[in-house]
């Protein structure tokens, strides 16, 4: 039947074309689009030639060029996946096509916080629950009891009962599945010791869309400013640029371990206001990216008080809350600090961001996260919900993971011992890697590196010889980018120039992750040490 229909349709098309040649169609008459005909006729052996007029491929002026697209897109930059990383991809392809053609045998990616791409294994319990939720038919099979832990099976049933149709392929409520938000709220309460309302939670595809949502809400024009740390994670500068706002920088103090000085916040705020900029919010990244510092609780109190007095929304990026490596520092959420100061919903607007991509879980590709929104009026919350509803909902696997991350196995659960062993193993290894790289960097000529208190990065400062700076100027590139590119071409190590994160003018840095697996760290250290010595000798003043 299908062949008959196809044959009949072809006969009609051929007849139509023949009629068109004999009786040209007037401009106002309907005709079958040439592209549709050519697609249809190309589905099997050609029956008739399409007239040349239908296949006119003469060049036409480009309708979309870099000069006529949205200038905000052109303005925004994202160094983490910028020029150096693009070059690394090309070198990797060269190694595949022609092994031995480069002075190294593999690319060592130290540019981005993407743990599982570098060999980190996922947490077993999280993946068991995800697998069972995605394929619930196996829950009723006898073999499942032997393959999956009892608590992962029970948790999967609990989650599926909360999902309409028990289907992870279905849309959910635009803020996220209510039962999953309940679990996350319970986890926040357990962490902070203060109440959390599941209706304050908006589950998102990682923390980045949540940041974009808040920038969309707060930025009306270039006269609206956002206070951002320098150095900062380029998501913030890119998002501010895309939404047409103004980044108001405040500089972290490298000499005091990347400390945040309230005096500098006040100075930058007053300077921006004197230029007619309405500063709407303050971004704080804790633990820091790219700088790796963990804020002291007293410092956080000062920040909360500053935002309250100045009427600023506090945007708290807390995606590295599990990544703290030093005994004298501890993570405290800004929600906890704010409530401990006696401030509630009517005192300060606070948005806290969390993600499943970092911590010990490293589930970057699953795109799960949330923002907890407090201190906004019901009318404004309706607008936030409207923006969430435009995107329908975040992906369900990410929602499930966010609930698991905030409410993991507990003492007495069958999975608890394995879960704790995997978690502690990952975090203790990250701590060792951070210390090894920190010591290695500090041993290099002209390099100083603050200790890695948390997060997944080191941000060393490098004193480049004037000859190297002049060579970079001749190459029309930033001096730290010049160094990073030379490092990549010589060793295969991929790091990100500090100029992509912002830095005090006249200083040069690069960001290096601590994520290559522990057995790869000696190779990173050896290659970097050898390259740096040769580089300094080559450009010595």
Provide key terms for this protein.
single chain, 541 residues, alpha/beta, three-stranded antiparallel β-sheet, 11% strand
Notes on the structure:
There is one protein chain. The protein is an alpha/beta fold and 541 residues long. Helices cover 44% and strands 11% of the residues. The chain is built from 19 helices and 14 strands. A seven-stranded mixed β-sheet has the order 2-8-7-6-5-3-4, sandwiched between helices. A three-stranded antiparallel β-sheet has the order 10-14-13, covered by helices on one side. Strands 1-12 form a two-stranded parallel ribbon. Helix 13 (334-340) links the parallel strand 6 and strand 7. Helix 8 (178-192) runs parallel beside helix 15 (396-406). The longest helix is centred in the C-terminal third of the chain and has 27 residues, at 416-442. It is globular. The chain starts with a helix and ends with a helix.
Short recap of the structure:
The chain is of the alpha/beta class and 541 residues long. The chain is 44% helix and 11% strand.
* Oligomeric nature of the chains: single chain
Beta fraction: 5-15%
Which parts are unreliable, with pLDDT below 50 for 5 consecutive residues or more?
Answer: 1-51
Task: Calculate the terminal CA-CA distance, rounded to whole Å.
Answer: 82 Å
Report the C-alpha radius of gyration, rounded: 28 Å
Q: What is the topology, as strand order, of the major beta sheet?
A: 2-8-7-6-5-3-4
DSSP strand count: 14
Shape: globular
Class based on secondary structure composition and strand pairing? alpha/beta
- Fraction of helical residues: 40-55%
Number of helices: 19
> What would the average pLDDT be, to the nearest integer?
86
């Amino acid at each position: 039947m299908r062949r008959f229909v196809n044959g009949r349709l072809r006969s009609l098309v051929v007849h139509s074309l023949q009629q068109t040649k004999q009786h040209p169609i007037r401009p106002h008459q309907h005709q079958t689009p040439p592209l549709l005909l050519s697609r249809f006729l190309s589905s099997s052996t050609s029956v008739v030639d399409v007239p040349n007029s239908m296949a006119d491929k003469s060049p036409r002026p480009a309708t979309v060029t870099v000069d006529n697209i949205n200038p905000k897109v052109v303005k925004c930059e994202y160094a983490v996946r910028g020029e150096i990383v693009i070059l690394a991809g090309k070198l990797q392809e060269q190694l595949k096509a022609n092994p031995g053609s480069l002075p190294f045998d593999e690319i060592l990616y130290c540019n981005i916080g993407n743990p599982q791409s570098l060999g980190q294994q996922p947490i077993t319990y999280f993946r068991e629950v995800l697998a069972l939720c995605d394929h619930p038919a196996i829950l009723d099979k006898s073999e499942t009891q032997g393959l999956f832990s009892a608590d992962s099976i029970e948790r999967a049933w609990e989650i599926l009962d909360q999902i309409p149709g028990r289907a992870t392929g279905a849309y959910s409520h635009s803020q996220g599945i209510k039962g999953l938000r309940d679990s996350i709220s319970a986890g926040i309460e357990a962490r902070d010791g203060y109440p959390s309302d599941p209706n304050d939670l908006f589950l998102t595809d990682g923390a980045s869309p949540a940041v974009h949502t808040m920038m969309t809400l707060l930025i009306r024009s270039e006269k609206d400013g956002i206070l951002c740390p320098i150095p900062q994670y380029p998501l913030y500068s890119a998002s501010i640029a895309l939404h047409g706002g103004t980044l108001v920088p405040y500089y972290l103090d490298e000499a005091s371990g990347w400390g945040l000085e309230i005096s500098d916040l006040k100075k930058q705020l007053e300077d921006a206001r004197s230029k007619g900029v309405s500063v709407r919010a303050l971004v704080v990244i804790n633990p820091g990216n790219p700088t790796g510092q963990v804020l002291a609780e007293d410092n956080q109190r000062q920040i909360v008080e500053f935002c309250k007095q100045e009427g600023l929304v506090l945007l708290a990026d807390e995606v590295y809350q599990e990544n703290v490596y030093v005994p004298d520092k501890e993570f405290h959420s800004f929600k906890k600090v704010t409530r401990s100061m006696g401030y509630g919903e009517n005192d300060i607007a606070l948005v806290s961001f969390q993600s499943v991509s970092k911590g010990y879980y490293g589930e970057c590709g699953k795109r799960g996260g949330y923002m907890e929104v407090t201190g906004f009026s019901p009318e404004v919350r309706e607008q936030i919900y409207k923006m969430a509803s435009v995107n329908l909902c975040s992906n369900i696997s990410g929602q499930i993971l966010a609930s698991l991350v905030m409410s993991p196995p507990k003492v007495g659960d069958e999975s608890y011992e394995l879960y704790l062993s995997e978690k502690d193993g990952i975090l203790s290894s990250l701590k060792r890697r951070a210390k090894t790289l920190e010591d290695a960097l500090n041993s290099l000529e002209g390099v100083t590196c603050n200790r890695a208190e948390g997060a997944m990065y080191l941000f060393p400062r490098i004193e480049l010889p004037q000859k190297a700076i002049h060579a970079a100027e001749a190459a029309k590139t930033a001096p730290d980018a010049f160094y990073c590119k030379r490092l990549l071409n010589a060793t295969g190590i991929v790091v990100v120039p500090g100029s992509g994160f912002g830095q005090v003018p006249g200083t040069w840095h690069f960001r290096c992750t601590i994520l290559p697996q522990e057995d790869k760290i000696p190779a990173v250290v050896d290659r970097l040490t050898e390259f740096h010595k040769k580089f300094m000798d080559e450009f010595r003043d």
